[in-house]
Write a sequence for this structure.
């Protein structure tokens, strides 16, 4: 095993796993840290955690446990995967986890690279843009759990970490890998522990991948995965069979959407025009004990429709705000997550095999309640969203990050089935 990835949520994990597979690395995704060593044939292992917005000490403990396990499996380089929109609070968890991983590896320096240009996440002079808008002007400012109101990665990183942050700007990156590594050395001499790196096209990411070859720890979104995978090319064998193993089969399917992102709102609206759909009632979800049962019965009745039935909590920002004001942000999001967790479990027990899920946190609770230990990575439905197939059952999942995929994503995903 060459590369060990620690991902702070489940959709983020499948996102990077998909890009590693695309770039020739046989990749397995494991949900949580395994209790024992596993006999796995893979070049890269991605461990998915649910550490993005949990208490800091929990995020640190699980991330360091993941690192220890990956070290025991012989991984030689480590990648802390977080969101391409840098989802975090003023306290973390990106900074604290990065610090803990550096300490555990006895390292003093890493890079901060959320860029994913193929999905419109670019970094220019240290500022993060989403589809051409500053992060703080984008829909991320209204995120239910980690609203992002600053776009300066240097400032964000400084606020939530122990060390100091420097910048490698695009002018240096466009000069090639050697000047970038020299800039890393300069920053280290100046006492910087992290370098935010500009990147707004694929060529920047290739250069950064090359420059980061000797770093033990890399941190970022999935964009840099292609550059990092290229460093291992000479060690890789044939990858085609691994991708086959992840293909979904024609089977009973449900769409569960717990994301309130701008793109998911569009996808839900578009899919609702074609497919049976049920909007979750947050009040009932909080107050009625058997609320999930009625949703479960509704899904069962609609499983044979032309398009899979969709249950969604997805709401526009003003509706979400009203819910959060009335019931509390934490209580309502917890209730929604519990609902999806319970519903997914009941549906699995009743023969549903394919789960198309929107939202990272939502995907985390659904995957956990389905009891899936790990995945083979299949074909990409959209950049950063592959179909994945459980290593230990016949379940297939499409775990969609909030803002990924185009407007027809839910329908497109169902076009990948084979008999
Ligand atoms: N109508 C709602 N009312 C209150 N909370 C909600 C509602 N809909 C969704 N949520 C909560 O908002 C959170 C959305 O986070 P999630 O990670 O699933 O989506 P996302 O942030 O859009 O996706 P990603 O992390 O992949 O970008 C979840 O905790 C979910 O339970
Ligand atoms: O990087 C991204 O944007 C996604 O993989 C993600 O982490 C969303 O949860």
């Amino acid at each position: 095993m060459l590369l060990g990835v620690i991902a702070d949520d489940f959709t983020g994990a499948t996102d990077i796993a998909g890009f590693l597979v695309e770039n020739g690395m046989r990749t397995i995704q494991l949900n949580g840290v395994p209790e024992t060593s596993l006999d796995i044939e893979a070049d890269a292992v991605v461990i998915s955690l649910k550490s993005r917005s949990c208490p800091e000490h929990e995020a640190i403990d699980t991330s360091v446990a993941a690192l220890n396990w990956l070290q025991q499996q012989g991984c030689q380089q480590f990648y802390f995967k977080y969101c391409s929109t840098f989802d975090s609070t003023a306290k973390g968890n990106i900074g604290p986890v990065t610090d803990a991983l550096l300490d555990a590896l006895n390292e003093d320096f890493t890079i901060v690279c959320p860029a994913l240009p193929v999905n419109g996440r670019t970094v220019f002079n240290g500022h993060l843009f989403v589809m051409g808008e500053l992060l703080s002007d984008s829909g991320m400012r209204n995120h239910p759990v980690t609203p992002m109101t600053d776009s300066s990665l240097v400032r964000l990183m400084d606020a939530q970490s122990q060390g100091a942050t420097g910048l490698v700007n695009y002018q240096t990156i466009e000069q090639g890998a050697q000047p970038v590594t020299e800039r890393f050395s300069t920053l280290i001499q100046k006492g910087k522990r992290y370098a935010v790196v500009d990147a707004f096209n694929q060529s920047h990411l290739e250069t950064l991948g090359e420059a980061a070859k000797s770093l033990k720890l890399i941190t970022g979104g999935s964009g840099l995965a292609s550059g990092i995978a290229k460093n291992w090319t000479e060690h890789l064998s044939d990858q085609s069979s691994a991708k086959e193993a992840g293909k979904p089969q024609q089977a009973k399917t449900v769409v569960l959407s717990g994301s309130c992102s701008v793109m998911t709102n569009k996808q839900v609206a578009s899919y609702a025009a074609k497919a049976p759909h049920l909007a979750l009632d947050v009040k009932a979800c909080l107050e009625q004990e058997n609320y999930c049962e009625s949703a479960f019965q509704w899904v069962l009745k609609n499983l044979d429709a032309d398009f899979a039935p969709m249950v969604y909590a997805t709401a526009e920002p003003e509706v979400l705000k009203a819910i959060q004001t009335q019931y509390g942000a934490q209580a309502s999001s917890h209730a929604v997550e519990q609902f999806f967790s319970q519903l997914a479990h009941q549906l699995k027990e009743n023969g549903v095999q394919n789960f198309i899920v929107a939202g990272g946190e939502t995907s985390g609770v659904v995957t956990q309640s389905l009891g899936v230990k790990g995945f083979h990575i299949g074909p990409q439905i959209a950049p950063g969203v592959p179909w994945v197939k459980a290593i230990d059952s016949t379940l297939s999942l499409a775990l969609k990050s909030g803002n990924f995929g185009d407007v027809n994503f839910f329908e497109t995903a169902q076009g990948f089935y084979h008999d």
Summary: Residues 329-349 form the longest helix (21 residues).
